[in-house]
Amino acid sequence: MQSNSRVTGQLPAVRVRPAVAVLALALVAPCVGVQAQDTSAVAAPVSSSVPIRDAEPVIVSGALPGRGMWKVSKGEHTMYVLGTLSPLPRDMEWTSRDVVRVLEEADEVMTGYGVRVDADVGFFGKLAMLPNVLGARKNPDDRLLKDVVSPADYARWLVLKQRYIGRDSGVEKYRPVFAAAELYQEAIEDRGMSTSSVIDPVLNEAVKRRKIKVTAPRLTIKVPDPKRALKSFRDEQLGDRACFSKTLDNLEADLDRMADRANAWSVGDVEALRLVPQGDQYEACMDALTGAQALRKYGPADLEGAMRSVWLEAAEKALAGNQVTLATLPMRELLKPGNYLETLQAKGYTVEAP
Questions:
Q1: Is residue 119 part of a domain?
Q2: pLDDT in tens, 166-212
Q3: How many domains does the chain contain in total?
Q4: What residue stretch is flagged as signal peptide (predicted)?
C-alpha cells in the first residue's frame, strides 16, 4: 500500500455518510477510499418511552477557535494531533490560530485513517456494477425492515421515520444498518447539523500554499472478484439489530447532547467532551459490518486493529522524518482508554494532552 504522496493541491474531498455505514460502503464501492470520521455523539441506551422533543436547529455563529491539540514528541520531532468531531452545526465557521500556526511549520499533514477497497474493474465495470451496489443495501429474500428487527424497535422506527424521513417506502427494504444510517443523516440535517468537515478548508489552504506533503493512512483490502463479493454480501443476513436499536436510542435522547459536544469541540473544551456520556452505537454498527463474512473473507479478522496499525506506522514514520507534523484523528479515538496516543506513549514517545 502506498500511504505517502506529495500533494500540491487540495486534500482529498471525502463526503462520508454516517459512520455506521462506512465499512459497508467500502465493501460495495470498489476502488473508493473511505475515511473514518468521528461519531462520538452517541448516547447510552434509554427506554423507548422517552418522548421526542421539538427543538430549534442548532446554530453556532461566528469564528470559533476549535483548539484542543495533543502533542506527541521525541527529541526535537513533534506531532500535533487535532481531534475531529462529527456532526457539527451546518455552515459553522471554524478557525484556529493554534492550528494555523502549526501548519506554518508543518512538514507533513496526516489525515485520519480508513479503508481502501482495491478492485480492478475499470470505469465501465464500475458503471455495470452500480445496480448491484445499490441492491446490496436491501435485505436478502425481499424481506422488509419489520421482518428483521424486533416489534418494539420497529414501532420506535415508525415514529422517528415519520418525523425525519416521511412517507418514503423504499427505506423499508433496507438492511437495519443502512436504514439506521439514512435516519441518522436526515435527523441531524433536520437539527441544522452536518457531517461535512469544517477543518478541510483550513488544511487545504495551507497544503496548497506551502505545498505540504499529505499522508492518508489507509488499510487496503484487495477484492479480486468484486461481483462475487457483492453477491455474497447481498445474500448475507447481517447481525445489525443492535446497531439499529442503538441508533434509535441515540436519536430519541441524544440530539441535544450532540449539540453540547459540538459546542465544546468548537471552543477546544476537551474536559467537557470527556464528561459528555458516550454510548456504543458506533461500535455496534462496526461490529455488525466487520462480522460480515463477505468482508472477513478478504480483510483481516481484526479490521479495527489493522487500521490502527496502519495509522501508528504512518505516525512513527512521520515523527522520525519530520520536525513538525499535523495529524487528525476522530475525537472518539483520542478520549477512549487504550487510544492511539497511549500506544505511542508506551513506545517511549512523550504525549501531552491539551
A1: yes
A2: 988 899 999 998 999 899 999 989 988 888 888 888 899 999 999 99
A3: 1
A4: 1-36
What's the pLDDT tens digit per position in 45-74?
Answer: 333 333 444 444 444 443 444 456 899 999
Residue 82 counted as domain residue: yes
In a domain? residue 174 = yes
Burial class (CB in 10 A: 0-12, 13-18, 19+), 227: middle
Between CA 217 and CA 98 the distance in angstroms is 24
Query: Which string of DSSP letters, residue by residue, matches 34-73?
Result: EE------------TTPPPPP-PPP---SEE----EEEEE
Question: In whole angstroms, what is the distance from residue 81 CA to residue 68 CA?
Answer: 9
How much is the CA Rg of the chain, to the nearest whole Å?
20
What predicted TM-score, i.e. pTM, was given to this entire model? 0.78
- What CA–CA distance (Å, rounded) separates 318 from 107? 9
* Sole residue written with cell 465544546: 264
In a domain, 48, yes or no: no
